[in-house]
Specification:
Layout: H1 7-17, E1 42-52, E2 57-59, E3 63-71, E4 73-76, E5 81-84, E6 92-100, E7 104-107, H2 108-111, E8 113-115, E9 123-125, E10 133-135, E11 139-141, E12 144-152, E13 157-165, H3 166-172, H4 180-183, E14 195-203, H5 212-221, E15 227-228, H6 232-237, E16 246-247, E17 254-259
Parallel strand pairs: 1-14, 2-17, 15-16
Antiparallel strand pairs: 1-3, 3-12, 4-5, 6-7, 6-10, 6-13, 8-12, 9-10, 11-12, 13-17
């Protein structure tokens, strides 16, 4: 697979992790004025992600479970407050890059065997992407959100994975109509004068420092120097990823190696 990219493909990949400014579809009368001193320029509902087992190295034949399970009392990272958000249509999107022969790569979903229950409406999208992205619909039942899928590892290599949400991608393409159902969800604490983003936070080790060379390569060759870190720990350890606008900490970034 060629390592060079067209501008269009880089832009499309960039959009998976970024969200541009948008005009809300909702009436200002339906929203509250913002009384928060926001950390960011937008509100940020935080979706937790677990990797089970969470390891740096796996063997061929191992199975990894990626899971999000959390109550509808959702932490807004930017507002530093917990908000009651019922029946929000979270729709996660994940990318996995499998590196081999130095910096050749392919889709981690194509190279291995994903397993996911049909109740999550799973879709795989290879169009205009370097790697096939995997997307699905989170389930909301009895006050709890749930989404999970597994990956049976079949090929060795270095892997870089991150997850964002269709809500963010639709905003980046100004596709407001696709977010109409999400924007119709009203809840106390949602501000009329602030954007909304969905951030995915990994619980556990992310192994980013050990894969710094691959993250820098992706930043320079795929994401047009847009990648960066937000947390103090990662900014201290990954000084080569400081100035971009796409914060990989907010996309549950996780790196790992598969060996024979």
């Amino acid at each position: 697979m060629k390592k060079t990219s067209t501008y269009l493909k880089a832009l499309l990949l960039y959009s998976l992790l970024s969200g541009l400014l948008y005009t809300s579809c909702c009436s200002e009368d339906d929203l509250d004025p913002c009384f928060y001193d926001l950390k960011l320029v937008y509100q940020a509902l935080e979706v937790p992600v677990e990797v089970i087992p969470n390891k740096l190295e796996y063997q061929i034949g191992d199975t990894i479970l990626f899971r999000s399970v959390f109550s509808d009392s959702i932490y807004d990272f930017s507002a530093d407050d917990t908000l009651l958000v019922r029946d929000f249509p979270f729709r996660p999107i994940s990318l996995i890059f499998r590196f081999f022969d130095d910096f050749e790569f392919e889709s981690g979903y194509d190279a291995n065997q994903p397993l996911v229950d049909e109740k999550y409406n799973p879709r795989y999208n290879p169009t205009n992407r370097y790697t096939t992205d995997f997307r699905g619909d989170m389930i909301y039942e009895n006050g709890v959100y749930l989404f999970e899928h597994k990956l049976i590892l079949e090929k060795p290599g270095k892997y870089v994975m991150w997850t964002t949400d269709m809500y963010n991608e639709n905003r980046s393409f100004n596709n407001f109509e696709a977010n109409a159902s999400a924007d119709s969800i009203m809840y106390e604490g949602r501000c009329r004068d602030a954007e909304l983003r969905i951030i995915y936070k990994l619980n556990g080790n992310d192994n980013l420092k050990e894969f710094e060379d691959y993250l820098v390569w992706l930043d320079q060759n795929v994401y047009n120097n847009a990648l960066a870190t937000y947390s103090e720990k990662n900014r201290e350890e990954l000084k080569s990823l400081l100035w971009g606008t796409v914060k990989i900490d907010f996309s549950a970034a996780f790196c790992f190696e598969v060996v024979e």
